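seq:
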Amino acid sequence: MLCFTKTPLQESLIELSDSSLSKMATDMFLAVRGP
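struct:
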């Protein structure tokens, strides 16, 4: 099921071994999602 929320995800849903990659994935998601 797909649900939309007013607040975007705060972390990547993909488990990445490197925390900096996880932050980068979240930042990219926010950039694509837009305001």
